[in-house]
């Protein structure tokens, strides 16, 4: 993601579906950029806000409770965006791709992780292109479906810890995801797709 985003220090990065902030905060530190994270869970946003000073000065990172389909961010405000393992929770994935395209500045990039069935590979590409984005790179991570299977089993086994640390709402979301997605991992490909909003052309 560091190399694919092609960001410069001081630019703005949006983390859509940021959870407790890990990926976005790591990238904000590595790239020396400003961060805004969006997540539907108020508990996750509180935890992300509490840990930001471990990564960057607090004024360089903010987190908001919003949906992926309606972030409330201004048009063309982000010089880069990431959406890590959150698309599976979206009710309308085409709308999410449209929203991420809207907030990207021209010639900015979105790094998006997806787990897709092989027969549905073309669907997400068409959705991205319909939103106005170009599919610039697709990198496959062959070991990731099994990693998620292990992680989902761990979530289920540690349900009490999840509820205590994250609250019932966030824990229910995670456990629901585990029960819903784990049976579908067979036959899926784990991808990191880089989508680019085309630059504005003169004339």
**Corresponding CATH superfamily:** Vaccinia Virus protein VP39
- Main CATH class: Alpha Beta
* Residue fraction in strands: 25-35%
Q: How many DSSP helices? A: 8
> What form results from the Cα inertia axes?
globular
Q: Report the CATH architecture.
A: 3-Layer(aba) Sandwich
Q: Considering DSSP H and I runs of 4 or more, what fraction of the residues is helical? A: 25-40%
The tally of domains stands at 1
- Look at the helices and sheets and give the structural class: alpha/beta
Catalytic activity: phosphoethanolamine + S-adenosyl-L-methionine = N-methylethanolamine phosphate + S-adenosyl-L-homocysteine + H(+)
GO biological process, one term: methylation
InterPro entries: Methyltransf_25 (IPR041698), SAM-dependent_MTases_sf (IPR029063)
Pathway: Phospholipid metabolism; Lipid metabolism
Characterization of the model:
- This protein has 203 residues and is α/β, with parallel strands linked by helices.
- Helix content is 40%, strand content 26%.
- It is built from eight helices and seven strands, in the order αβαβαββαβαβαααβ.
- α4 packs across α5.
